[in-house]
Amino acid sequence: MHIHHLRNATMLVSLGEHRLLVDPMLGEPGAMAGFKLFGGGRRRNPLVPLPTSATDCLQQATGVLITHEHPDHFDAAGIAWTRERRLPVWASAMDVPSLRQKGLDAHELVDGSLGLSVEVIPAQHGPGLVGWMMGPVAGYYLAHPSEPSLYLTSDSVLSDSILEALARLAPDLVVAPAGSANFGAGPSILFTVDELVTLIRRAPKDVLLNHLEALDHCPTTRAALTARLQAEGLTSRVRIPQDGEQLHYERGSTGPHPRPKARPSAKPGLQKWLTSKLG
Ligand SMILES: [Zn+2]
């Protein structure tokens, strides 16, 4: 499995014959308003450009994978780019109808899609009511028979469903957002650094941390994270890529991957409807 990290949560994952572009935020720096609401420091997003390697990288994409419809995961530029190329868009049942309304060739990602073992693992984009108001988010476990298995937690705080999935599915690589986003007041809407430490300790194998230094409401830096992981003795299994960095992961064992758990697919309801009006 090859990962080309581009910026924030945007990356190209090579999984078998697939080249899946995850959560493309492709806009120019400053194309979007700031997300930080309180306490100063509001700046237009994204803060940084795509790396120069992005142009060649994007051309390889055979499909797009969306974890949720926030603009730092699928912005206007990403939507236009995907629509122009008529690439299939894979998403949870929550997001497929609204993605189709945007003129995209959207498909529900289910177990067996793309020849992969798939489980959609609920994510919680903040604690309690804050998380509900942030709207639905899908984490994905993806396992290709001849590749390391991958668990994209997507934007979440630490939850029992994430810890349960780590223990049951033993993913070879966990990708987690590490910017500790918050609006300048109120709780963190992504894993805190303490929660990341717990997540890394509970992840059985490798961890990749992204969603860093690209948005005004994500205060945690790569340097601060690295220092904390060094203090915790956790650097050996964790990578914090620079934008444009490419990483390769080999499958450690030849046995079958754990089978995903069958779950009913959650259809869009009040939360999706209301939060899409607010977003
Ligand atoms: Zn995000």
Task: Please specify the SSE layout and strand pairing.
Elements: E1 2-7, E2 10-15, E3 18-22, H1 54-59, E4 63-65, H2 76-85, E5 88-91, H3 96-101, E6 105-108, E7 117-123, H4 128-133, E8 137-143, E9 150-152, H5 160-169, E10 173-177, H6 193-202, E11 206-210, H7 222-232, E12 238-239, E13 246-248, H8 270-278
Parallel strand pairs: 3-4, 4-5, 5-6, 9-10, 10-11, 11-12
Antiparallel strand pairs: 1-2, 1-13, 2-3, 7-8, 8-9
The Rg value, from CA coordinates, equals: 17 Å
- Average pLDDT works out at 94
For CATH, the homologous superfamily is named as Ribonuclease Z/Hydroxyacylglutathione hydrolase-like
Q: What's the number of structural domains?
A: 1
Number-wise, the strands total 13
What proportion of the residues is helical, as a percent range? 10-25%
- The share of residues in extended strands comes to 15-25%
Low-confidence stretches: none
**DSSP helix count?**
8
Question: How is this structure best described in words?
Answer:
This protein is an alpha/beta fold. It has one domain: 4-Layer Sandwich (Metallo-beta-lactamase, Chain A), CATH 3.60.15.10. Helices cover 24% and strands 22% of the residues. The strands form 2 sheets. Strands 6-5-4-3-2-1-13 form a 7-stranded mixed beta sheet. Strand 9 (150-152), helix 5 and strand 10 (173-177) form a beta-alpha-beta unit. The longest helix has 11 residues, at 222-232. The two termini are 34 Å apart. Bound molecules: zinc ion (ZN). Zinc ion (ZN) binds at residues 9, 70, 72-73, 155, 177, 211.
